[in-house]
Inverse folding.
């Protein structure tokens, strides 16, 4: 094998480690997010509720952005896990703030009000971008 190919393959264990950590953190985020929200996102999505799909999709993107930054800037798996956990907490708290700002948000999402879902998603993505940019250590 050429030296270039060997150098590329040498990074594979790190890729697998960070990738699986990220998948675990995304799964934890989904669990915590769906636990903290009073509406059942997955059931609503199965019922073709666009507002729930947009809101949940925005929350996922809002979490994935800082998680990506944590992977990029971390010094180790532990460092990445810590900053990933911080991103998780920030994103879950974002829902609480948005819920306070937009009265009856869960009820509106339950009713399929797309505007409420878009607003929630936009706030989640905006906070995710700010959170991500803040992770430049």
């Amino acid at each position: 094998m050429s030296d270039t190919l060997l150098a590329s393959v040498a990074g594979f264990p790190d890729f697998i480690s960070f990738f699986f950590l990220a998948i675990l953190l995304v799964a934890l985020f989904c669990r915590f997010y769906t636990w903290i929200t009073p509406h059942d996102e997955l059931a609503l999505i199965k019922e073709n509720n666009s507002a729930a799909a947009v809101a949940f999709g925005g929350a996922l993107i809002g979490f994935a952005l800082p998680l990506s930054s944590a992977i990029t800037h971390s010094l180790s798996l532990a460092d990445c896990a810590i900053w990933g956990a911080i991103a998780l907490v920030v994103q879950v708290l974002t829902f609480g703030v948005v819920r306070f700002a937009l009265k009856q948000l869960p009820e509106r999402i339950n009713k399929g009000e797309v505007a409420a879902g878009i607003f929630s998603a936009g706030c989640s993505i905006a906070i995710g971008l700010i959170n991500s940019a803040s992770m430049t250590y």
